[in-house]
Every structure is written in C-alpha cells, then in structure tokens.
Here is the input.
Amino acid sequence: MGYLIFGIAVFAGAHLFSMLLPDRRNALKASMGEGPYKGIYALVSLAGLALMIWGFWSLTSDPATSSIVHEPAPWARHVTMLLVLLGFISLSGFHGKGYLKQWLRNPFSIGIVLWSVGHLLANGMLHDVLLFGTFLVLAVLDIVLSMARGKRPGHEPQIRSDMKAVVSGVVLYAVFLFVVHPYVFNVPII
Here is the structure.
C-alpha cells in the first residue's frame, strides 16, 4: 500500500501544484524555461504514475493486503464498459479540432472522469478506490478550475476531427479490452 500512496502523493502533488498555484507555476516556468519545466513536470508525474501502478499491481496480485470498501453491483460491469468506451472517445477528442472538443470544452478530463467512475463502480477494494478516486478528484478539479477560469477551445470545428476521435477511441478501447487488461494487467474483462 505504501508505493501506491507515495505514488498518489507525488502524482497528485505535481498536478495540484500546477492547477491550484498557477502564478507560482508560471513563475517557475519563466525562471527555468518552458522546456525544462515541462520536462521535470513530466518526469515527476511519470515517477508518481509508475509508483502508483507498481503499488496497485502488487496489491492486485495479493488481494488479502487490501480491504473491501464496497461490493460492486451486478450491473456495474456493463455500465463500466460503456463509460470507458465513451471515456476513450472523449480522450481521443482532446487533440483534435472537432465539435466534440468544442462541446465538451475539456475532453481529456471528462474522459478521465468517465474512466474513473466506471472503474469505481466495478471495483470495490481499497486500492481501487484510492487509485481511481485520485484520478477522479484531479479530473473533476481540472474541469471546475478550467470553467472558473473561462477556458474554452477557440477553433473552427471540423467533423473529420470528430470522426478520427471516435475511431481512435474505439481502437484504444479494443486494445485495452483485449490486450492491455488481460495480458499486461492480468485482469481479464470478458
């Protein structure tokens, strides 16, 4: 549990610093330069993510080390499949210039919210709640702060971008469903 909690602290700490203290973030970015700042931010985030994954994986491989927070409902797995599919499509719309991005305003964080909520519905162990709950809180906070700061995409929407987002999202979903979950995470879905 220690690696998971330490990873959450590192990953969430970096993201909370960036989201909650934008003036300090911008000052640090100006003094270091944008490239070095982004590089260090990415390394810290990746280190936190790696610790979270390692801690989560070690707890998943030995379920006796984590306690049950809630018992998932029988329908939760089916809802999760839909939420994760929509989440991957939303994530894929982040880089494009489509109607999807303009309508959602913050498709990356909305995708993370959908993915997190789905996994929280289908998994009830403490380590599941800590991992997916962390992503959920950070994504919701990002959405709220972005709306409060008036961030909006400013592009002319193109339907081609939305089509790419849907295709990319479905492909990513299939890869995670049939390859990553069963063979990398050793958690079969179907």
Summary: The helical segments are 2-20, 22-32, 34-61, 76-92, 99-104, 107-122, 126-148, 159-184. The mean pLDDT is 92. The longest helix spans residues 34-61. The chain has two domains: 1-65, 66-190.
